[in-house]
What does this fold into?
Amino acid sequence: MMRSFVRNSWLICLALAVVSQSCNTQSGKKGGSDDTTQFRGVIKLDVRDSEADWGPYTRKAAPKGSPNVLFILYDDTGLAAWSPYGGRINMPTMDRLAANGLTYTQWHTTALCSPTRSCLLTGRNHHLNGMASITETANGFPGTSAMIPKACASMAQILQDNGWATFWIGKDHNVPEQEVAPGASRAQWPVQLGFDRFYGFLAGKRINGTPTW
It folds into this structure.
């Protein structure tokens, strides 16, 4: 029995060695993973003689002095209604922000909240984003699925990949109705589109003071 155990153990070690050699050969052909090609430490038989290198495993950080980026989206309101643009709705905070910053006079609007929000998120036309209309009217045709394709990266994904922390607070309304459920796919939820945290509500009609997710 002891002889059988030793023989089996030897075969397992041999198999692991073959697999390890195969992985090394394949990674050599393809340039290896980032962890392998960028590792600058020293690996010895004894860990006390080895030298660790955390460089390849350290997440990218935003450059020093990088600004905070804040987008505030007023849903279903027209710019002409705001006091910074001559409207009759008095918005003193917005007036101060406009006086100390930039105001834009041209904006591509889709006249609906879900499509416009998708354009702001990706910088692309709402039909390319699959958001021809609001998510409640999604249909199985090109441009109308209410599912933002992976080819349309969100600005949050770009910021996240470059070291920014990203948050979404408030209304989403960019998730297909069939996926607004705990057991459904979360591929279109904010946390899958580059946002580290989400505190708000996914559907269009919710009480703002009681976030659902």
